[in-house]
Write a sequence for this structure.
C-alpha cells in the first residue's frame, strides 16, 4: 500500500478516512489535524498557558510533543499516584516522561507526589472507602481531577489539556448511553468550559484520533512510552466498551468516529438542552476548590478518611 | 512454512500467504487494537505474510 501523498510505502492505513500515509506524511497529518481541532473547538491560543496532564503513556506524551512542535506554551503535570503493581508502574511512568523531556529543550514539568503530599498511594486510599475497595479507578479519577484543577489554578494556567483519544471518548459515551446518564452526556465533549466557581477549562485536542493513531504517532516519533497497562485497569468497564466498539469498527469502518461525531452534532442541535442540569458550585470549606457538596468536597472527605484510618 | 505473531507474552504461529489483518483475526485479536511491527518498522496490515516473518503486535488499548 502506498502513501496517498507520495509514492513511499505507507506505514498506516486509516480505514475510516480511507487514508494511507507514509511515516513523514502521517506525522505531518497528526500535527496539522491537532492544530485544526484546537482551532475548530476554540480550545486555546498561542497566548494561553497550557497545562498538559502527562502520565507517561502514548497519548499524553504524543500530545505534549505535538503542542511543543506547534509552539504552544505547554507545561507538563505528572501526578505520581504511587502505584507499583509489581513492576514500579508509577516510577517507570515518571522515568519515561523524564526521558521524553531530555530530548526536548525548555520543557517544564510539575510533579505532584500523592503518597508524599496526601499520605498514601491511591490503591491504599481506595481500601479505606466502601466504593473503592479493590478497584481504585474512581478514587484515582477523583484525585487526578482535583489535583489537575488545583495545580492549574495555583499556577495561573488558562487550560488543562489531556490526551484523551476518540476510543476513550467513544467508550465513555457508550457507557453513559447504556445507562442514559444524561448529566454526564451533557458535559461530555472536546471542551469543558471554565466556570466562574473556579473550574479551569479542560480540553481534549486528540479527541478525534483513533487510539491506534496516537500509538502510531508515538512509535514513529521515537517516543518511548509505558506500554504496560495500569495494573488496576485490567478488566475495567472502559476497556470492555473499547473492545465492543472495535468489533463494530471491524465490520463497519468509521463506526467509532460516526458514533462520537454524530453525538457532538446532536448535542450542538440541542438534544440535551432540556436536561441541562447545571448545578451551582460552592468553594470547599477546606481546600477552596469548587464542589457541589456543602462543606468539604469529595476529595477532602476521602483523603481525611484515609489519614484517619 | 509459517510466520509468527507476538502479542505481549503470547506467540501465535500462522501459515504464510495470508494478510497480517487476516492473521490477527485468526488469532482472535482485533486489528483495531494492535499495530503490526516488522523489524522495528510499522507496516500496514494488508501486507502478505512471508515465510519466517515475525510480526510484533503492539497493543494500543489503554485506560481504565
Amino acid at each position: 500500500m502506498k502513501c496517498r501523498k507520495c509514492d513511499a510505502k505507507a506505514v498506516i492505513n486509516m480505514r475510516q478516512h480511507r487514508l494511507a500515509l507514509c511515516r513523514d506524511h502521517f506525522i505531518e497529518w497528526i500535527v496539522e489535524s491537532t492544530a485544526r481541532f484546537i482551532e475548530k473547538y476554540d480550545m486555546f491560543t498561542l497566548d494561553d498557558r497550557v497545562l498538559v496532564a502527562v502520565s507517561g503513556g502514548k497519548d499524553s506524551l504524543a500530545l505534549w510533543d505535538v503542542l511543543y512542535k506547534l509552539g504552544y506554551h505547554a507545561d507538563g503535570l505528572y501526578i505520581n499516584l504511587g502505584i507499583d503493581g509489581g513492576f514500579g508502574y508509577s516510577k517507570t511512568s515518571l522515568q519515561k516522561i523524564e526521558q521524553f523531556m531530555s530530548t526536548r529543550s525548555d520543557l517544564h514539568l510539575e510533579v505532584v507526589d500523592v503518597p508524599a503530599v496526601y499520605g498514601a498511594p491511591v490503591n491504599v486510599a481506595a481500601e479505606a472507602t466502601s466504593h473503592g475497595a479493590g478497584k481504585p479507578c474512581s478514587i484515582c479519577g477523583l484525585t487526578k481531577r482535583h489535583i489537575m484543577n488545583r495545580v492549574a489554578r495555583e499556577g495561573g494556567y488558562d487550560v488543562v489539556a489531556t490526551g484523551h483519544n476518540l476510543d476513550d471518548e467513544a467508550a465513555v459515551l457508550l457507557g453513559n448511553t447504556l445507562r442514559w446518564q444524561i448529566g454526564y452526556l451533557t458535559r461530555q465533549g472536546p471542551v469543558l468550559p471554565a466556570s466562574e466557581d473556579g473550574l479551569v477549562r479542560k480540553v481534549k485536542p486528540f479527541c478525534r484520533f483513533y487510539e491506534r493513531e496516537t500509538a502510531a504517532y508515538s512509535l514513529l516519533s521515537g517516543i518511548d512510552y509505558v506500554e504496560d497497562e495500569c495494573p488496576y485497569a485490567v478488566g475495567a468497564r472502559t476497556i470492555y466498551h473499547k473492545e465492543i466498539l472495535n468489533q463494530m469498527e471491524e465490520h463497519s469502518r468509521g463506526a467509532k468516529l460516526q458514533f462520537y461525531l454524530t453525538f457532538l452534532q446532536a448535542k450542538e442541535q440541542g438534544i440535551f438542552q432540556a436536561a441541562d442540569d447545571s448545578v451551582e458550585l460552592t468553594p470547599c470549606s477546606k481546600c477552596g476548590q469548587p464542589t457541589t457538596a456543602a462543606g468539604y468536597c469529595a476529595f477532602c472527605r476521602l483523603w481525611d478518611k484515609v489519614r484517619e484510618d | 512454512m509459517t510466520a509468527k505473531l507476538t502479542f505481549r507474552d503470547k506467540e501465535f504461529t500462522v501459515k504464510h500467504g495470508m494478510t497480517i489483518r487476516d492473521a490477527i483475526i485468526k488469532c482472535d485479536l482485533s486489528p483495531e487494537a494492535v499495530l503490526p511491527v516488522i523489524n522495528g518498522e510499522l507496516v500496514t496490515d494488508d501486507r502478505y505474510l512471508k515465510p519466517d516473518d515475525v510480526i510484533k503486535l503492539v497493543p494500543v488499548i489503554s485506560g481504565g
Notes: The first helix of chain B runs from residue 20 to 26. The helical segments of chain B are 20-26. Residues 2-59 of chain B form a domain with the Ubiquitin-like (UB roll) fold (CATH 3.10.20.30).
